[in-house]
Amino acid sequence: MFALFCTILLYVYSYCLSVDFTYHIKEGNMPSSYIGDIAVDTHMIEKIKSEERHLIRFNQLQKDKENASQLFNISEDGKFYVIQTLDAETLCKYKKMCFRMVDVAMQKREIFVRILEIKVVVEDINDHQPVFPVKQITLEFSEGDKKGTTLSIPNAIDEDISEENSRITYKLLSNNKVPFIMVVSERVDGSYSVGITLETELDREIKDHYYFQIIAKDGGKPSKHGILKVYVSVLDINDNLPLFSQDVYNISINCKYKVNKAVMDLDAEDLDTGENGKVMYHFSSKTSEMTKSHFQLNEITGEIFLCENFPFKKRQTYELYVEATDGGNPPLSSIAMILVNVVNQRNNPPIIDMNFVSKSSNNMATILENTKIGSFIAYVKISDTDTGQNGKVTCTLQHDKFQLQNLGEKKYKVVLKSFADKEKESHITFKVICEDNGFPRLRTEKEFSVLVTDINDVIPQFNKETYKFLIYENEESNFPVGFVNATDPDMGLGGQLTFSLFSKNNVALPFQITNYGFISTTESLDREQKDIYIFQVLVKDSGTPRLNNTVDVIVEVMDKNDNAPYFTFPSVNPFSLDIYFQPQNNNDVTKLKAYDKDSKENAFLKYEILEGNEKELFTMNCYTGVLSFSRNVYQNEAGVYNLLFVVKDNGIPILSTTTSLSLTLVASNHTFPLLTIATNELDFKIQMNLFLMIIAAAVSGSVIMVISITICVVKKTNKIKTSSKQRINPSDKIFSVDRETQNTSEQISYNPPLLRENTQQNSLLQLQEEKGQHLSNYKVTLNGTNLNSRIPYQATSKEIHQIYVQNAHRPASHRKNKEDFQCNFYNYRQMTAKSQNDCEFIEKVGSHYEELSGLHPDQNDFQQASTSQSRVYAYSGSNSSYQTGNFNTTGHTNVTSLHAQSSIRTNNLSTTILSHTLPTKCGFSSFSKPLPALPKTASDI
């Protein structure tokens, strides 16, 4: 008994070593019952990175057995379920421990990870009651039997396989006292022998029969029981059992053992005589059906033989339970256990067993067309019962699509070697060849098939990376824009395409697209609002899963001449402007500005004067819009000029806009300012000349001569003198006009000056005032000597006026008559003003005054002025008006004091200093330009 237990324990332990996890489930469960989570219970998920755990899939490997029923189901995430109700007695009829092995493939996507071998133990429940072979039995006791005489009764059978549920206890139950007791003894096979023992001697004359019940109760919770009705007749009965010489027999045979030769000859001895001593042999109920199919038992002789189909495989032990029964009534029996050990010395070919990941039938599985290279296709198990070199097996797979990879001893996996293409090969057949190392080598070939199923594996493709289309603005809706072409080689729904438009910023688009890829407008487009549209076209096929692709589309809206130009200056119509003509400056009056919302040639503008230029006094630059004087302006041309301007674009048709400009032209006789140094020395020279001439006349004695000379001197003095009143008001009044003399004065306010004296040949008079602006610059040249006066004007906090007068000696031989007196006037200005609409207009103009006819006095009056030397002093006053006086022809000049109101006059020379910054309108600056006086006639003198 102990040896049997150790053998079974060793067998179970060796088998369990290769199990990854064991589940226990009770029989009689409901279908689809949850068993457990393989991923969690086996701790395999813990070995996978957390970010890759969602890629793990579990598949139950399928046996290629058409008649094999499916007991379990495993979801892709590892949930383990039972499919049908389990019955331990049906699954494991002859085993005390009922279990099933399940092979589970663990994959990361299509990549094989490992095979998990799951053991499912089906726990027995007490669902069967002990059952006697018969419902009632009759026993016969001889009245001569002594105390202790025992008669056997059939024991109860409990079909439960667990030891607890199948353990039976017996109890004798009777309403009346009987001379019998029940005796239970355990047999070698674990069953019990039940007997009725005579407790006291029987007296047939008192009572010849007895009735009682035998209750058989199992060990389950709750327990169940069976009842056997027992009738006892007092007779002489068979009271001896057939006995074996030993309880356990252990024998070994090899693969060459002959079939017709008895493996063992059993002999059970029965002391009874007659029929009670005749022994018959048969396999007990504990012997498995498989074992019974491999062995034959002679019921009369007790000889055991091998069957014709006995499988000589690897070393294996068979357990045979033989029961010997005599011919008594009731029959008595005993059981012996025979262990047959088979030692295999033959060479058998290997056996190939392939389990596919996908469902298979008749060695055919299915894979998808897009299955990745290296994907796990099938699991291959090789079995060879031979030992030594005969049991070593090598397998190969020769195919361009599949590859066989070794997983260990006699274990392989089939993976995809190259991509499968449904269009090229829809059905793939391959063969696995396994060969052992025995002599001779034995090989096994098994053919398998894989069916390739089509999928939507091709993304729709555009024939361009970017589509660019041109369209004119103002077209009606549904106007065609262009065609986007996409193709998809997939068949069926995978090749049916649909198009849609979308923008990255989810902005509504004025376009639509058909399912054929034609793009059209949904509304009229305006280039001035938006000239370019950038969006994407999305194309999807109708396969499963749906594949899509996008392409960039650029639609450029081309311009039409649908916007007329408009003037930005002048911004109002009509616009008034006061202007002055200064011939020394450039002749620009103002600059018209216009804008056109269109582009390119539609926005190319040309300016023209339509009306108001009958005197042809103005000219217009047709491209820049600059209005200029076309010639010199005379005093009698002063007045108001109403000019009508037009600006035209270059589009088709030509669009134009007009505006009116009212120009007030101011004219004056004094055409350029001459600011000279006024000193008392000039008056002194004049007086001295007059005095000398009078003395000369007195000496000559000619009164008439004296009077004539006096008249000439006085007249010449009046011609040289000019009156120039200069005044600057920091606010807005810059100029004042003398109504009587028609002279324009510039008022200058300056700080107390600095008096300097230069003993060299050059003398300097500097008038300096710091204000908030710079005015104009002046340059005066007298007989080759420069008299410079600078009055700068800037938008700062200081205003500085400087007048430089320089008088240098030059020999009379180096002077020319035409160069005795020259006046050059330079004006530099910069003005910035803002219009009402915050536009800014800046102009920088450098102007040079021209010499006008009739400007110079007689040259002879100034020929001697170049030889004089002068010392220059600067004087101050809050408001000073400087006028030029008569120039003496003597070689020496006296310098006199200048008071707050001092004037220097020059004969026949009158200058006017005009402002160079007038009030602006809409960002436009007008400039003072003195007008040349008309030539004087003899009557004017």
UniProtKB/TrEMBL annotation:
It is a single-pass type I membrane protein. Its main location: membrane. GO terms for cellular component: plasma membrane. Residues 17-132, 133-244, 245-352, 359-462, 463-567, 589-675 form the Cadherin domain. InterPro entries: Cadherin-like_dom, Cadherin-like_sf, Cadherin_CS. The chain crosses the membrane at residues 690-714. GO terms for biological process: homophilic cell adhesion via plasma membrane adhesion molecules. It is found in: Cell membrane. It comes from the Eukaryota. Residues 1-18 form the signal peptide. PANTHER family: FAT ATYPICAL CADHERIN-RELATED (PTHR24026), PROTOCADHERIN FAT 4 (PTHR24026:SF126). This is Cadherin domain-containing protein. It comes from Octopus bimaculoides. The lineage of its organism: Eukaryota, Metazoa, Spiralia, Lophotrochozoa, Mollusca.
